[in-house]
Amino acid sequence: MAAPTSVATPGPRPLPLAGVVITRNEADRIARCVRSLAEVCAEVWVLDSGSTDATAELARAAGAQVREQAWLGFAAQKNAAIALATQPWVILLDADEWLADGAAERLRALFAGEVERADVWELRRRTHYLGAVLHFGGWGNEKVKRLFRNDLRFKPGHVHEKMDVGGRRVRTSGVRMEHDTARSGAEYRAKLDRYARLFAEQAHAQGRRASPLAPGLHAAAYLLKTVLLRGGFLDGPGAWRYHAEHVRYVRAKYRYLRALGSAAAR
Question: Is the pTM higher than 0.85?
């Protein structure tokens, strides 16, 4: 008598969803990001801007299609990545982010139910900083617009780009994502300094100016709102280092903006 033949059970069908990621020299973390997307997405696109490490090869091995594009700036680069999508919905992650445990099931439930009731769905992001997981201060449950119809785009901007959601329906989902924001303290401080300068340049071009008190006042506001009122201090010493970097960052943004205004007035 012949032995019964085992039949492989097919896995869940992918969702009508394109995962998109922009990269440059992210070999140490791109695979984690892509694998989390490939679990649910019909396609995953990585738009690379000249990596000199194995980012592209590792992304392909994890299930992504990779294209090259010289750096256009944050908003324009993300818009170029979104344009690669052939699915009706897009989910956008940075290379240092990934979908949390249980996110695939929540996405499937969303698409089986109410996904069409909005044009943009916010995901809930939790930040990690050098081994510390942030639960408080607004960084443990941050709402970010990352799941959206494929015709949406980001507004022009140098840094902290914003999606153009004018006239669109925005709702919040229960889908969670993780964000491992730093490889080292020095790298993170350098990144925040770049962002501070980009913010100042953009704000100055828009006609904004900073008073002599602005750096200190904005830094104090961060401490009051994030660390005290929202309980950021409850996450312990690892989180305190994170908040110290952000106080420094907020102060730098307005110090650079004031410097640009002073130079223009001469």
Answer: yes
